[in-house]
């Protein structure tokens, strides 16, 4: 842990614990641009991005935030150069293998959401092992959206519900929000209170479209590998200034 990270190991005094978000979601954008600014290949940006995510996870744990969801790889990301996609798949697998033991020791519950069946079989095996070995952990819930798309998630939920109606297991007038949520990838995970997007892009990029209906959104120009505890502190300070009315007065 760096000196700056150590400085913010504990919850800063200007943050009110009772006003912290229970669930933070992050769109980790800017790895490639960060690498370009450093005169490095894009893959080095992804490696630096992994380090930033690891520290954010530990920061959430240190500060008492219950859940973190990270947008690691979207369904649209398959359109990137083959070399970059192959590197990302290998990177995911290697990081999972290297970090799992520490995650278990730190009581982290790991979960992956998305169309995991399209991932390389070796990565699927590492994902299954990570989820199995941490399923009973009761610490921070760490969800990684991989080969994930919000529209695709909604479509697959509609198909599953339609099939139950067709089989006579469900009546159309029984379909409500709770029914729909039980058919999403994120079943059992509370909706994010705060969505953070780095690199200054002003869009949600097909991420958790149903779940972020009432999330507070924080956008920063900081590129993801530079998103450290000080940046997270700023995001939480901004969040605690918001008045969350959920459509009410």
From TrEMBL:
Its EC number is 2.5.1.-. One of its GO terms (biological process) is polyprenol biosynthetic process. Mg(2+) binds at residues 29, 216. Its cofactor is Mg(2+). PROSITE patterns: UPP_SYNTHASE. It holds the Pfam family Prenyltransf. One of its GO terms (molecular function) is magnesium ion binding. It comes from the Bacteria. It is an enzyme of class 2 (transferase). Binds 2 magnesium ions per subunit. The active site is at residues 29, 77. Keywords: Magnesium, Metal-binding, Transferase. InterPro entries: UPP_synth-like, UPP_synth-like_CS, UPP_synth-like_sf. Substrate binds at residues 30-34, 42, 46, 74-76, 78, 80, 197, 203-205. Homodimer. Belongs to the UPP synthase family. Catalyzes the condensation of isopentenyl diphosphate (IPP) with allylic pyrophosphates generating different type of terpenoids. This is Isoprenyl transferase. The lineage of its organism: Bacteria, Bacillati, Cyanobacteriota, Cyanophyceae, Nostocales.
């Amino acid at each position: 842990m760096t000196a700056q990270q150590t400085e913010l190991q504990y919850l800063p005094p200007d943050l009110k614990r009772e006003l912290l978000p229970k669930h933070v979601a992050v769109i980790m954008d800017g790895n490639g641009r960060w690498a370009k600014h450093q005169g490095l290949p894009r893959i080095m940006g992804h490696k630096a991005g992994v380090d930033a995510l690891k520290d954010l996870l530990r920061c959430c744990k240190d500060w008492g935030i219950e859940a973190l969801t990270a947008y690691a790889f979207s369904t649209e990301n398959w359109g990137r150069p083959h070399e970059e996609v192959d590197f990302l798949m290998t990177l995911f697998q290697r990081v999972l293998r290297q970090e799992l033991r520490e995650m278990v020791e730190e009581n982290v519950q790991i979960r992956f959401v998305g169309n995991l069946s399209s991932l390389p079989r070796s990565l699927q095996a590492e994902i299954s092992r990570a989820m199995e070995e941490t399923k009973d952990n009761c610490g921070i819930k760490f969800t990684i959206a991989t080969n994930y798309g919000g529209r695709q998630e909604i479509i697959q939920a509609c198909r599953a519900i339609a099939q139950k109606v067709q089989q006579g297991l469900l009546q159309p007038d029984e379909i409500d929000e709770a029914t729909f949520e039980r058919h999403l990838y994120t079943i059992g995970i509370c909706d994010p209170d705060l969505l953070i997007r780095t690199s200054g892009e002003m869009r949600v990029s097909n991420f958790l479209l149903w779940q972020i209906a009432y999330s507070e959104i924080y956008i920063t120009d900081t590129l993801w590998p530079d998103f450290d505890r000080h940046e997270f502190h700023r995001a939480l300070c901004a969040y605690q200034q918001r008045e969350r009315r959920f459509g009410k007065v």
